[in-house]
Amino acid sequence: MGRFEGKIGLVLGVANDRSIAWAISELLFAEGAELAFSHLPGPSSERRVKQLLEPYNPKVVVPVDVQKDEDLERLFSRVHEEYGRLDFVVHSVAFAPPTELRKPYLEVNRAGWHLAMDISAYSLVAVSRHAAAIMPAGGAIVTLTYYGGEKVVPGYNLMGVCKAALEHSVRYLAWDLGRRNIRINAISAGPVRTLSSAGISGFDEMREHTARKSCLGRNVEAKELASTALFLLSDLSSGITGEVLHVDCGFSIVGL
Ligand code: NAD
Q1: Is 125 within 8 Å of 143 (Cβ atoms)?
Q2: What is the pLDDT at residue 235?
Q3: Which of 25, 38, 129, 224 has the fewest CB within 10 Å, making it most exposed?
Q4: Mind listing the pLDDT tens digit for each residue in 208-244?
Q5: How far is the CA of 195 from the centre of ligand 1 (A)?
Q6: How far apart are CA 175 and CA 125, in angstroms?
Q7: Is the pLDDT score of 1 beyond 90?
Q8: What is the pLDDT of residue 166?
Q9: What are the φ/ψ torsions at residue 52 (nearest 5 degrees)?
């Protein structure tokens, strides 16, 4: 019997089969979880996600733009209606307008800053609030971040500032949700080639540098992020909340 047998989870952030959220979902399915999904509204993303999900036939697959409160309300009502509760959430969502992401941080405009912060950081707050309302017996939430939220990583720019806000949101949310037995943690992932990472200038150099400098001498694989997510979503990590766990082959502990 799988470790997630009888558990109901929600996954936000599957765009295609390279998405980190997809690697996590595949492992959750293998461990027996019942999963609900959201995807970005629009015919092409709907087609891609529904194709991926076909073998698993999930009951809830809802288009959601995390900038829209009404979309989030619809998603969580569907989950509540179908299952009556939620045990865990995977939040794997981020976006910044490509033009703003490529600029030096000094040059970022107000509209781009707000949009990136809204999708990449505030969405965790909104999602956590909705999720907590249908987690009567407690639960677990996991999100994805990157080292560029702690240190300056040239090229990561605006998204680094969003990740700093996301990581500190994890800590404040852990405080707000802890007495309700809801844990929330972040995985700080080493660079993995995905749709989103294609928008980061110098991404291949980042991967090459990380592989060379990390303790393990290589880059992390999506399946290693997935197994860490399952740890953080399961009772194996029952004493851990508000944590940012680096899954980066030891890159972040090296000073030079
Ligand atoms: P991805 O492109 O597969 O996933 C990003 C997801 O965000 C997509 O599913 C996209 O549809 C969703 N999204 C964007 N705007 C949205 C909106 N307005 N409403 C709803 N959903 C929206 O790429 P990924 O690399 O798997 O990214 C997942 C998470 O992992 C992100 O938070 C990313 O910053 C983080 N991360 C990625 C890496 C990496 O190297 N790939 C490293 C560290 C952290």
Answers
A1: no
A2: 97
A3: 129
A4: 999 999 999 999 999 999 999 999 999 999 999 999 9
A5: 8
A6: 13
A7: no
A8: 99
A9: -60, -40
Long-range contacts of 21-28 (CB under 8 A, 24+ apart): 21/90, 21/92, 22/52, 23/222, 23/223, 23/225, 23/226, 24/90, 24/92, 24/225, 24/226, 24/229, 24/230, 25/90, 26/226, 27/223, 27/226, 27/227, 27/229, 27/230, 28/4, 28/90, 28/230, 28/233
The answer to whether the CB of 150 is under 6 A from ligand 1 is no
Residue 87 has pLDDT above 90, yes or no: yes
pLDDT classification of 23: cutoffs 50, 70, 90? very high
Query: What is the gyration radius of the CA atoms in the chain, in angstroms?
Result: 17
Which residues are catalytically annotated? 146, 156
| Rounded distance from Cα 144 to ligand 1 centre (Å) | 8
Decide: 21 and 90 in contact? Cβ < 8 Å.
Answer: yes
pLDDT tens for 134-170 read 999 999 999 999 999 999 999 999 999 999 999 999 9
Most informative mutation of 12, 16, 18, 20 for ligand 1 (most atoms within 8 A of CB): 20
Report the atom number in ligand 1 closest to the C-alpha of 195. Answer: 2
Burial bucket for residue 61 (CB in 10 Å: 0-12, 13-18, 19+) = middle
Choose among 116, 101, 31: nearest CA to 67.
116
CB 146 within 8 A of CB 159: yes
Share of the chain above pLDDT 90, in %: 97
Amino acid symbol at 55:
P
Coil, strand, or helix at residue 186? strand
